């Protein structure tokens, strides 16, 4: 039974919320929403990540006066890592600015799943650098998804390659025991198909051990590991699960050198709480790691020096800050690419999508941007929305992350058919006719 | 297992059992706070988890700053004092602004009120002290011990941090028992727990008793935060520890302090054994709900928990 | 002045038993339904703010109405039958995954039948987890229902066929088609949800003033007395669990298919259970209208706390706003409980009462 007053007050409240959008004079510029989480269980990771994004936008505005002179207008919206809040943020911000949202970077696999259904309708590209759906790399089906510079499947393949190398070659994997310790959620389960396929291929024994969210208590998991005595533990964790796991590993005397986190288990909040016990722990890198490049000097000069920005000189070189910055840079460069075709003005999501799909950054361009050494060259195409399939390994020495390996490239001969299969299944389920990438210009 | 006596397997069984019991004590540390408040005011305090978070944040932030100013032991004392003062302030505010106005409401309303308090504490705590993860090191040892190595291959693994927490929990229980049995305030608390109206009629100030019991629960939260914070770092996820404590108090009974410890031991051992021995055959990750199933089974036999006050009523 | 019982004479029993006994109420509810079903979409089409655009429909009204529907389900159990449940989110999840499975394995089935089957599946599960209520009650029962919550959370992730063996455990909803009507635009979705909410509300209102509802209330108020006058507690409690879960399952299917479109088990976690319990308690235990008031309160309050500083152009950081929202939200729960423990529905009733007596208060 609704009754008049309820409804009226609801509408009034809604009107109040909608008013600011209508009433405020719109600045001219390119609008980019920032979905972030600075509170709640994942805040320790969410804060530096979001800082990297907004500080890079601020840098572009302060140093260059915007992208080719078009100012970036950004607005943060707190999702708390919850899918329904994320969807609300997206709905609220998707039509802001003169041309609507240029792209959305949801910083959460759960929100990415929900937005994957909405983005094609609203014609807004989703940038999910290093997370999200692995099969969305197939741009012929997932037109609007861009899992740039690394998917979970790439990570899984590189992890096994690295472990194989540690043992002295892929043939040495035979009969070895590898444990996947994963966060019990879609995020943690993403790599399982690839690892299972690799286990079959190289004949190693894969044991899957889930950790229930949030993972503050992992005694039984690590007792199982202690009993199993695996040769390697691959860890797919997020949030408090990671430092807890490292500490429990220390408790059961499992060597940290035989633990390989993936790139969301390889930042400072993951190792610092574990203290000295984290020394020796290894993790994949989403190409970049911690540390400074030329762009950080610009940040000091144009952003922090002028009292802008969310972070500061010391905190702006951490792994997650850099991740945010790389993600923001890729989006900005996508917009720049699109401007070359559509002109230097605020662009629509559809135009930006074209730009991201034609994004190409070579060594020289990365050097110009100040990102030299942070990521490898990237080239996006219709059929490949990931752009580069490489990763490195880093190790925590108690004070900082040290890069300890060369670049590894994921084995496309194995991943490509799996991707095709998964993307094809999605297309069939949704009734999508894949684009013919040979005809795309 | 028993047929062909395999020392490694038996050793592992005891290892799982031991670490389960120790985990249980860690849960019991949080559960104690619930029990204290329920005993004295009949409030099922959902905010206990948030109190652990705030206590931990206050402790770690104060310690972080004081460490740079004064010697470590003094800094630790001062930080604990600061945290204690904060918890006292919270107890006062809770009593003054919430509980006092909710006298005579139903249990459900009071429960909801503590959820409101949870949100206030979480919001203010994160705003004032920050939402990052902070490393807490109060000097508790974190290494492992291996005992009975001569009997079992590889020995039985025990964690020193867990052992120290068990000692801490034991001390807390003794202290609380003395407090309840021997002191005047403690007797007043027990009187209030037995019958609010009767206690009030003999001149025991109800509101002050509530303030004291929330304060004591706050101190217990500091102990829990110190242990859990040393384990996983002080961060928002500490509030989830409260969810692990719920089945513990259900098993032990909402009103019994020894019940919290026994419940903790039962739940800890039960869930670890289930995860290790049953988990792999069903895909793992079962301990979270298994603890609640254990609690449910206990309830079906004894609806008031193992040590809870028997409430004579028909259903 | 016009809002009076005076002059209305009931000469039939059915008038006596009407849900809305006052003529103005009947007119009011009709106007409201017309406004919701006809005027709001027309205003949207005409582009009148705030009805123009999608935001109001897809981010405010649709989730709000689904939550209100779910809250009705929970209120039947908690508010009318007195059985506290902290597993409501999980029962929504059962409905969502059941609907998904039906749509995958019986693709030809009409959408409405899918939703009903989802509700039925949830009712069966609810019945099973309702069995402990025969032996335990109060807060102990509340914690026992947490067992249901955590077990089902785990099952959604671990049991392959629930997600049709999706590798990640995340699934997507099929296109929504009802008898040839493609429910695509946010306004159409809103209308679908509104229709379901209205039907469920009407059904629940009728249920609680009938035999079953009176049995539930008797059990809630005093179970022993209820038993003595011939009410079978087992039957009443279990029907309460089943019907409550049915509505929750239906709402869960809507939440998944209409609101989220793609979801992971986390969407139906314990946070959802708590959210529904807040709605019920803040709205008013044992009140259907309270479910709508409570849902509006819970859903709109965070938006308002965030929106007002923005509207007044006070710069406030996103994290400070989020913490402020938490704090204000908690404080408002406390204030509501202190000043009106019977919830918003009670405030609404008092207002109506005052209006009826006006201008001659007691």
Poorly predicted runs of chain C? none
Major β-sheet strand ordering of chain B: 1-2
Q: Provide mean pLDDT of chain B, rounded.
A: 86
In percent terms, what proportion of residues of chain B is strand?
under 5%
Molecular shape of chain B: globular
Largest sheet of chain C: 2 strands, antiparallel
The greatest inter-chain interface is formed by: A-C, 62 and 70 residues
Distance between the termini of chain B: 43 Å
> How would you characterize the largest beta sheet of chain B?
2 strands, antiparallel
| Quaternary structure | heterotrimer
How widely separated are the two ends of chain C? 16 Å
Name the beta content range of chain C. under 5%
Please tally the helical runs of chain C, counting DSSP H or I stretches of 4 or more residues.
Answer: 14
Q: From the 3D coordinates, which CATH architecture of the largest domain in chain C would you assign? A: Orthogonal Bundle
Give the CATH class of the largest domain in chain C: Mainly Alpha
Structural class of chain B: mainly alpha
Question: Strand order of the main beta sheet of chain C, please?
Answer: 1-4
> Do you know the CATH topology of the largest domain in chain C?
ABC transporter involved in vitamin B12 uptake, BtuC
| Helical residues, percent of chain C | over 70%
Keywords (chain A): Plasmid, Signal
Signal peptide (chain A): 1-23
Protein name (chain A): Leucine-binding protein domain-containing protein
Pfam families (chain A): Peripla_BP_6
What topology does this entry show?
The complex is a heterotrimer of chains A (441), B (315) and C (362).
Chain A: H1 4-23, E1 30-36, H2 43-64, E2 72-78, H3 83-93, H4 109-122, E3 126-127, E4 145-146, H5 152-167, E5 177-183, H6 186-189, H7 192-202, E6 205-211, H8 219-228, E7 232-236, H9 241-251, E8 259-261, H10 268-271, E9 282-285, H11 294-304, H12 319-342, H13 349-357, E10 360-361, H14 363-369, E11 378-379, E12 390-396, E13 401-403, E14 408-409, H15 412-430
Parallel strand pairs in A: 1-2, 3-4, 5-6, 5-7, 7-8, 8-9
Antiparallel strand pairs in A: 9-12, 10-11, 12-13, 12-14
Helix pairs in contact in A: 2-11, 2-12, 3-4, 5-7, 12-13
Chain B: H1 7-41, H2 48-67, H3 72-97, H4 107-129, E1 144-147, E2 156-159, H5 160-182, H6 184-194, H7 196-201, H8 206-232, H9 241-252, H10 257-282, H11 287-301
Antiparallel strand pairs in B: 1-2
Helix pairs in contact in B: 1-5, 1-6, 1-8, 1-9, 1-10, 2-3, 2-4, 2-8, 3-8, 5-6, 5-8, 6-8, 9-10, 9-11, 10-11
Chain C: H1 13-16, H2 23-46, H3 55-80, H4 88-105, H5 111-130, H6 139-158, E1 171-172, E2 177-178, E3 181-182, H7 186-208, H8 211-221, H9 223-228, H10 233-260, E4 262-263, H11 270-283, H12 288-311, H13 318-339, H14 344-357
């Amino acid at each position: 039974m609704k009754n008049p007053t309820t409804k009226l007050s609801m509408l009034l409240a809604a009107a109040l919320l909608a008013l600011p959008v209508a009433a405020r004079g719109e600045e001219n510029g390119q609008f980019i929403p920032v979905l972030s989480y600075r509170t709640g269980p994942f805040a320790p990771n969410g804060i530096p990540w979001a800082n990297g994004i907004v500080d890079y936008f601020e840098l572009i505005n302060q140093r260059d006066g915007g992208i080719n002179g078009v100012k970036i207008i950004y607005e943060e919206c707190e999702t708390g890592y919850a899918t329904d809040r994320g969807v609300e943020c997206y709905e609220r911000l998707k039509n802001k600015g003169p041309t609507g949202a240029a792209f959305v970077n949801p910083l959460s696999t759960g929100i990415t799943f929900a937005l994957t259904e909405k983005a094609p309708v609203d014609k807004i590209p989703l940038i999910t650098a290093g997370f999200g759906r692995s099969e969305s790399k197939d741009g012929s089906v997932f037109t609007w998804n861009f899992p740039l510079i690394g998917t979970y499947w790439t990570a899984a393949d590189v992890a096994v390659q690295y472990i194989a190398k540690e043992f002295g070659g892929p043939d040495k994997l035979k009969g070895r025991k590898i444990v996947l310790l994963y966060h019990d959620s879609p995020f943690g389960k993403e790599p399982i198909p690839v690892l299972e396929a690799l286990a079959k291929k190289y004949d190693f024994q894969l044991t899957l051990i889930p950790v229930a969210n949030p993972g503050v208590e992992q005694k039984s998991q690590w007792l199982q590991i202690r009993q199993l005595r695996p040769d390697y533990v691959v860890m797919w964790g997020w949030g408090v699960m990671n430092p807890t796991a490292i500490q429990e590993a220390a408790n059961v005397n499992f060597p940290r050198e035989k633990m390989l986190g993936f790139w969301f288990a390889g930042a400072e909040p993951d190792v610092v709480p574990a203290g000295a016990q984290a020394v020796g722990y290894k993790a994949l890198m989403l190409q970049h790691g911690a540390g400074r490049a030329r762009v950080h000097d610009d940040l000091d000069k144009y952003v922090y020096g002028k009292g802008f920005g969310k972070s500061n000189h010391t905190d702006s070189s951490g792994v997650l800050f850099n991740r945010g910055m790389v993600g923001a840079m890729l989006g900005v460069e996508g917009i720049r690419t699109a401007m070359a075709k559509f002109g230097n003005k605020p662009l629509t999501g559809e135009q930006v999508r074209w730009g991201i799909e034609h994004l190409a950054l070579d060594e020289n361009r990365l050097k110009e941007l100040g990102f030299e050494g942070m990521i490898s060259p990237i080239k996006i195409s219709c059929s490949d929305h990931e752009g580069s399939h490489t990763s490195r390994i880093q190790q925590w020495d108690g004070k900082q992350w040290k890069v300890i390996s060369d670049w590894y490239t994921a084995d496309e001969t194995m991943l490509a058919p799996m991707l095709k299969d998964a993307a094809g299944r999605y297309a069939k389920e949704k009734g999508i006719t894949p684009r013919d990438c040979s005809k795309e210009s | 297992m028993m047929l062909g006596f395999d020392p490694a397997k038996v050793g592992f069984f005891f290892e799982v059992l031991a670490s389960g019991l120790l985990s249980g004590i860690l849960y019991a540390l949080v559960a104690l706070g619930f029990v204290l408040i329920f005993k004295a005011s009949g409030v099922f305090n959902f905010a206990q988890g948030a109190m652990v978070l705030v206590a931990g944040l206050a402790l770690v932030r104060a310690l972080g700053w004081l460490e740079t100013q004064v010697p470590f032991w003094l800094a630790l004392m001062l930080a604990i004092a600061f945290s204690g003062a904060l918890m006292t302030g919270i107890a006062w505010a809770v009593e003054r602004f919430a509980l006092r106005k909710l006298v005579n409401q139903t249990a459900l309303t009071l429960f909801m009120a503590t959820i409101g308090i949870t949100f206030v504490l979480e919001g203010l705590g994160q705003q004032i002290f920050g939402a990052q993860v902070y490393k807490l090191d109060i000097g508790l040892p974190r290494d492992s011990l291996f005992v009975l190595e001569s009997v079992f291959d590889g020995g039985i693994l025990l964690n020193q941090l867990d052992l120290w927490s068990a000692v801490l929990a034991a001390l807390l229980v003794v202290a609380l028992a003395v407090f309840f049995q021997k002191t005047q305030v403690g007797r007043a608390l027990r009187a209030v727990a037995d019958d609010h109206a009767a206690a009030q009629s003999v001149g025991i100030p109800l509101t002050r008793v509530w303030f004291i019991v929330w304060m004591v629960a706050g101190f217990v939260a500091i102990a829990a935060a110190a242990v859990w914070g040393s384990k996983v770092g002080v961060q928002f996820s500490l509030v989830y520890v409260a969810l692990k404590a719920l089945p513990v108090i259900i098993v032990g009974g909402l009103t019994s302090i020894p019940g919290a410890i026994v419940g903790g031991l039962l739940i800890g051992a039960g869930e670890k054994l289930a995860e290790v021995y049953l988990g792999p055959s069903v895909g793992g990750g079962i301990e979270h709900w298994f603890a609640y199933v254990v609690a449910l089974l206990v309830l079906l036999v004894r609806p008031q928990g193992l040590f809870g006050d028997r409430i004579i009523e028909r259903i | 002045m016009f809002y009076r019982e005076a002059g209305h004479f009931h000469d039939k029993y059915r008038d006596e038993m009407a849900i809305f006994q006052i003529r103005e109420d009947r007119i009011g509810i009709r106007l409201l339904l017309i406004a919701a079903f006809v005027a709001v979409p027309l205003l949207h089409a005409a582009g009148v703010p705030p009805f123009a655009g999608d935001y109001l429909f897809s981010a405010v009204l649709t989730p709000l109405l689904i939550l209100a529907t779910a809250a009705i389900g929970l209120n039947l159990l908690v508010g009318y039958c007195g059985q506290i449940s902290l597993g409501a989110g999980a029962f929504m999840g059962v409905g969502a995954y059941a609907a998904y499975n039906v749509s995958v394995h019986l693709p030809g089935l009409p959408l409405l039948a899918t939703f009903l089957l989802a509700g039925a599946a949830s009712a069966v599960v609810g019945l099973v987890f309702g069995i402990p209520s025969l032996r335990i009650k109060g807060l102990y029962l509340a914690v026992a229902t947490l067992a249901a919550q955590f077990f089902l959370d785990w099952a959604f992730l671990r049991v392959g066929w629930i997600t049709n063996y999706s590798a990640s455990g995340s699934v997507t909803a099929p296109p929504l088609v009802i008898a040839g009507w493609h429910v695509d635009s946010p306004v159409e979705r809103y209308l679908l949800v509104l229709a379901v909410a209205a039907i469920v509300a009407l059904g629940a209102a009728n249920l609680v003033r009938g035999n079953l509802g009176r049995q539930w209330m008797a059990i809630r108020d005093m179970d022993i007395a209820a038993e003595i006058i011939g009410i079978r507690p087992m039957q009443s409690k279990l029907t309460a669990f089943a019907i409550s879960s049915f509505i929750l399952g239906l709402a869960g299917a809507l939440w998944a298919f209409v609101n989220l479109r793609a979801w992971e088990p986390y969407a139906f976690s314990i946070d959802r259970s708590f959210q529904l319990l807040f709605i019920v308690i803040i709205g008013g235990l044992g009140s259907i209208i309270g479910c709508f008031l409570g849902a509006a309160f819970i859903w709109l309050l965070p938006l308002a706390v965030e929106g007002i500083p923005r509207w007044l152009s006070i710069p406030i950081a996103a994290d400070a706003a989020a913490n402020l929202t938490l704090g204000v939200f908690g404080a408002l729960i406390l204030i509501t409980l202190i000043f009106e423990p019977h919830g918003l529905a009670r405030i609404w009733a008092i207002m109506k009462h005052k209006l009826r007596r006006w201008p001659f208060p007691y």
